[in-house]
Amino acid sequence: MQPDRAYLDHAATTTLLPEAVDAWAQAASRVGNPSSLHSAGRAARRLVEESREAIADDLHVRPSEVIFTSGGTEADNLAVKGLVWAQPDRGRILCSAIEHHAVLDPVSWLGDQGCKVDWLTVDEFGRVDPETVRARLSDDVALCTVMWANNEVGTVQPIAEIARACEEAGVPFHTDAVQALGQLRVDGSLPGITSLALSGHKIGAPVGTGALVLRRDARIVPVTHGGGQERDVRSGTFDAPGIAALAVAVRHAVDHQALHAEEISALRDELISAILQVAPTAVVNGHVSERLPGNVHVSFPGCEGDTLLMLLDAAGVECSTGSACTAGVPEPSHVLEAMGVAPAVARGSLRFSLGRTSTQADIDRVVEVLPGVLDRASRASSPRVRRTR
Fold this sequence. Notes:
Elements: E1 6-7, H1 18-28, H2 39-59, E2 66-69, H3 72-85, E3 92-96, H4 101-112, E4 116-120, H5 130-136, E5 141-145, H6 159-169, E6 173-176, E7 195-199, E8 210-214, H7 240-255, H8 257-278, E9 283-284, E10 295-299, H9 305-314, E11 317-318, H10 334-338, H11 343-346, E12 349-353, H12 360-381
Parallel strand pairs: 1-11, 3-4, 3-5, 5-6, 6-7
Antiparallel strand pairs: 2-8, 7-8, 9-10, 10-12
Helix pairs in contact: 1-7, 2-7, 3-4, 5-6, 8-12, 9-12
């Protein structure tokens, strides 16, 4: 990153961890397919299995429950489709209305294929009520899925309570933990969690790495077929270098989680306070206290988010209008819509997301340029008065 710029889009992707780069480079310098039986293949397989054991230890699960994938999107699709397909006698899915599209879209697709989808509403803070989930669970539900923490507004869900309700009802429960790992304590052994998805590039591993934690007694139908790797759940040649880098990044994320959360939550609170001083009419979205340490999601009434984004970028501040996967989409955020935010307000929203390399200088940069950016953005959004003779 350039020293004169403030990168505040860590929720989209974060900087590579030097230790993960070293692990990848060391593994990539060796030859060997982990599925081969010769010495080079066995050495590569040993690296894969040692990495699996390390990740399992960090997430409090069994090594056999760690399924390596190409990232969070594949992990979510594998869980959502595979768990539903494994129960053809059950035709209903419970899904929160604010999921990332990696969950939202496969659930909607399954709905088009004949499943009945019950969308779980959220309150004005973006929280799912566990009692609402409990009331809608029944023996015809094939899957309940609620993300651990929202990628846009940062709201943290009561996952333990929701998972417990699903366990009591005998319903598989999947959670997208992509944003949670590294900022919150993620425990895959919580009662009721059937599966959870992780993505490497959110925690300092290379893009294209990730994992699905899948309980060993879970019934699941593979989405891809081939060589039978990963319990015959996810076939394909192991990416040994990427897996090694992922294990290093997960270990770093878990070991430094508490200190990291303390440091960036302090910067987060300072940024929120500074924004509200500059723009008293701004609205901070998401839960007041149950939110990710690094998330600041703000709506600026009277401004357009895309205009704010480009003006900030020109002034040396890089942020986003929401999920990077929906950048450029003209419709208001489905997350804010589900929270009851008016479309006119939702269109003027920005997400500032802090990460491991965020500093006080990044906050100072935002505070320095934001007044001028807001002034220009509000003038650009104001309706022009037509002159008449």
